[in-house]
Structure formats: C-alpha cells, structure tokens
Design a protein that fits this description.
- The chain has 257 residues and is an alpha/beta fold.
- The chain contains 6 helices and 7 strands.
- The radius of gyration is 18 Å and the shape is globular.
- The protein starts with 20 loop residues before the first helix and ends in an 8-residue tail after the last strand.
- The C terminus is likely disordered.
- It binds iron/sulfur cluster.
Length: 257
C-alpha cells in the first residue's frame, strides 16, 4: 500500500473512559457471570482479536467456568500467534488450539494449490471450510454455549447483531457480549488493563484473519475491507458465523430486553 495513503489506526488513547463505558463494563461482567452460571460447557471462540482479548480478560477475572479456544489455521501471521502466547503468559491460562485436518489440507493443496483461494469465491470458501469451519465444529461439539467477539460496528453485515442468539444449527446458545460496544470502548478496555494486542493493528490492519487474506486498510474504508479484499463485499464471511441454518435471536441474557 502506498506510504502516502492514510492508513486505518486504532482509536486514539484517551485519559477518560468513553461515554457509557461504566455501564458497558458492568453489563459485560454480569453477562459473563450469567453465562458461567447457566452453561457448564461454554467456550469463547477466540480469533485473538482485540475483542477476544478483552473477552478473555473479562472471563479470567470473573472466574466463570468458560474455556477459550482459537483455530490455528496454519496460515496465521506470527504477530497473531504471539497474542496467544502473551495471553497464556500473562494470565496463566491455556488456550485450546484447534487445527485443521492435515489430510483435508493436503488434498486441497494438492488439487488446487496452497493459495487457490485467490482464484474464486468457491475455492476460498472451501479453504475456509477446511481450515476454520471444520475445526470450529469440533471445538463446539458437546458444548452448550459459545461466545464471540463480534460487534455491530464491524460493518453493515453485522449491524443487527444481537448480544444473545440461539444457534439453531448447533442447538446451543451463542453470545456476542460486545455486540453494542463502540470501537472506543473496546480499545479503552484493552488499554486500561494493558492487554496484549496484535502488532498488526498498529500497521493499519483493522480486522485480522489469515495472513494471505488480510491486509491494512485506509482510514476511510469499512473495517472489514482488508479481509478477502479481492472479493465482493457480499461474500465476505468465512462460514464461522454464517451457519447452514439461521441463528435465531432470543432474549438478552441479563437485561431481558
Ligand atoms: S482466510 Fe484465507 S487462508 Fe484462511 S482459511 Fe480462509 S481462505 Fe484459507
């Protein structure tokens, strides 16, 4: 990307919390505690994003019996993997690591090539199925709830995201505790607790997935513009959150609204 282009940057650090932050924090803690009380086999599906680092911290400091896992697709940046190591060192927790089936990866690479995802949406989605979706299904097998760091501010495709959904495809609850959080609140939380963050954020990456499918964006672009940038916006999900059947919205866990 041209060095003269103004890249996306995280929200500037502020000395005071953003408006509404205390209420968001209070509700987050209540939500995490309620999930821990109502679900014995809940897990955070972490992408090691700033949101998932915030959720990991909220879980660890709540003592809620919620596990966390991330999917090492085999194509992650070293900067992303460093976040997992930093979280484990900082909090003394062990993140479960899910990996794709090596036979499926080898078959895809052998038939299409390692970077065939650039050749079309179908091949891109097949790569995501093998490297992300199938490991996710294994990670969620036997669980009664899962948590994600998705937020409405991530873009129009997530504008109607609920805090609490029912994942019909898997028959389990799904929580997006940060759904309503603005960028400023997420980054304030991370800075307040000096949480380990992916170094790629400081290089203009607003959303970080696999290395060959993520890049820095300009300040004026949609936050997810750097993901699969060669595709139309309509195809930009990896399948982790768009399941074969709809996800139904049910009542919010704490407030009941
Ligand atoms: S994000 Fe790219 S490399 Fe990662 S699983 Fe999807 S297509 Fe494959």
């Amino acid at each position: 990307m041209n060095a003269t282009v103004e890249l996306w940057r995280p929200p500037p650090a502020a000395s005071a919390p953003p408006p509404g932050f205390p209420a968001l924090l209070r509700e987050l803690r209540l939500t995490i505690a309620a999930i821990g009380q109502r679900h014995a086999r809940a897990a955070l599906a972490s992408s090691l994003s700033v949101e998932d680092v915030v959720l990991t911290h909220a879980i660890v400091t709540s003592d809620a019996p919620i596990e966390a896992f991330f999917i090492d697709t085999g194509r992650l940046d070293a900067e992303t993997l460093a976040v997992a190591a930093a979280l484990e060192a900082r909090f003394g927790v062990e993140l479960l690591i899910m990996r794709p089936d090596p036979r499926a990866v080898a078959a895809y690479v052998g038939e299409h090539g390692r970077d065939a995802f650039y050749d079309g949406v179908a091949l891109r989605k097949r790569c995501c199925e093998i490297r992300k979706v199938e490991p996710l299904e294994r990670a969620l097998a036997g669980r009664d709830a899962w948590l994600t760091g998705q937020r409405r501010a991530h873009g129009p495709e997530r504008a109607r995201l609920a805090e609490h959904e029912f994942d019909i495809a898997r028959g389990i609850a799904k929580f997006n505790p940060l759904a309503a959080w603005p960028d400023a609140a997420v980054w304030h939380y991370a800075r307040q607790f000096d949480l380990p963050l992916n170094a790629l954020y400081a290089r203009g990456y607003a959303s970080i997935g696999c290395a060959p499918c993520s890049r820095a964006i300009r300040a004026v672009e949609d936050p997810r513009a750097g993901r699969w940038w060669w595709e139309d916006a309509a195809s930009k999900e990896c399948g982790l959150h768009v399941t074969p059947s709809a996800v139904a919205t049910i009542a919010r866990v704490v407030s009941g609204t």
